[in-house]
Amino acid sequence: MAKPWAAFGVDLHLEPAGPGLRRGLTAALREAVRTGRLAPGTRLPSSRSLAADLGIARNTVAEAYAELVAEGWLTARQGSGTRVADRPVIPPTGTTAPPHRERPRPVYDLVPGTPDLAAFPRTEWLKAARRAFLAAPNQALGYGDPRGRPELRTALAGYLARARGVRADPERVVVCAGFVHGLQLLGRALRARGLDTVAVESYGLPPHWKQLTAAGLTTTPLAFDELGTNPGRLGEDRSIGAVLLTPAHQFPMGMPLHRDRRATVVDWARRTDGVVLEDDYDGEFRYDRQPVGALQGLDPDRVVYLGTASKSLAPGLRLAWMVLPPTLVDAVTEAKGGSDTCGAVDQLTLAEFLTSGAYDRHVRAARLRYRRRRDALVQALATHAPHLQVTGIAAGLHAVLRLPPGTEQSVLQAATWQRLALHGLSAYRHESSTTERLDALVVGYGTPPDHAWAGALEALCRVLP
């Protein structure tokens, strides 16, 4: 009986069936080609290799190949081997899906949340990767500490203390695969501690709220006023055991948490044994004001600091980090599992990128580039829509553009016609918020590549009321 596999040349799973090995092999190959499992142009193993792998005579394979070449399923040329012929693929009966009509892709993208990916420092990153990989010990390629590579945790502790005022011990740093992954781990750990309710901001990212809900927690929005998020409810609602904030640069409204309110949040956490989750998503990008230090620096035993490379480098790296209070380190590490879930090579590369100074150089260059874009946005709006107010422009990679009441949806529809990807403020409002509804656009000026920035700005001005 022939073995149902082959591994010489290419991985090829075959199950010859029916009377006679040659007939069964021919039928199995024909079916694999007919249904598209073997794509046109795929090179098949030599008759000797396939025969050895299937445990059958070489002549049997050669005859099957010859028959399929004669039928037009395969091609055979001297020096290039036997390949699948270029012919239409017939899908199996009953599996044809209804035609999917794709929407036209946007020409311009001003959706916030992504930096200019074309500006990723590929050359410097590759240099850092080479240095880090050559210097790494062999055990770095093993499963590793679930908290992450010690090289990266040490580098992050030093950088965050210097640049963001975080009081970080490498033993309390946990590396995770993006902010959402970190939030998932924290949600499990908080729920295991018996927490039921997490306060969130009236405006924020719905996917983050959904992660907390998926962990079994209820999210309740705090009020929002001219000073930003108002934490007054924390002292009034005893069911709240934690709060998720963006204190350095509220997303998406753009202002920092007022200093008196920062103190209020920390006092609440100390008084009630509460936990503050600080999302410092774009702490590197400040333009017209001094950087706002991390809230975690006020009380590292009550505040979880969360940072990410998604805005400063690229979200595709899937690298983020948490600096945890001592009481949460074991619970979060246990929630993460018994081994590291982030790629060791990328962790080692980021560690080298940080310690070599390449990260600081990249951030400074990016800060200048985004500031110029911010200035161009403000100037264009002053020229084409001087009646509209722009806020949240002192920091970050996005701005909030206030619209006349009742016009947000019509502007978004006009943007769709212009093939401009754009988000309204309503997309970021918590469904239970009692804060007054505002019509506005959240403009991600950091998103387009340089060559598309001018066109995106022109398209934005065309859709404004």
TrEMBL record:
Phylogenetic classification of the source organism: Bacteria, Bacillati, Actinomycetota, Actinomycetes, Kitasatosporales
- Indicate whether DNA-binding appears among the record's keywords: yes
SUPFAM superfamilies, A to Z = PLP-dependent transferases (SSF53383), Winged helix' DNA-binding domain (SSF46785)
Q: Which residues form the HTH gntR-type domain?
A: 19-87
* UniProt-recorded Gene Ontology molecular function terms: DNA binding; DNA-binding transcription factor activity; pyridoxal phosphate binding
- Is Isomerase there in the keyword field? no
What protein am I looking at?
GntR family transcriptional regulator
Give the keywords, sorted: DNA-binding, Pyridoxal phosphate, Transcription, Transcription regulation
Q: What family classification does the UniProt entry report for this protein?
A: In the C-terminal section; belongs to the class-I pyridoxal-phosphate-dependent aminotransferase family.
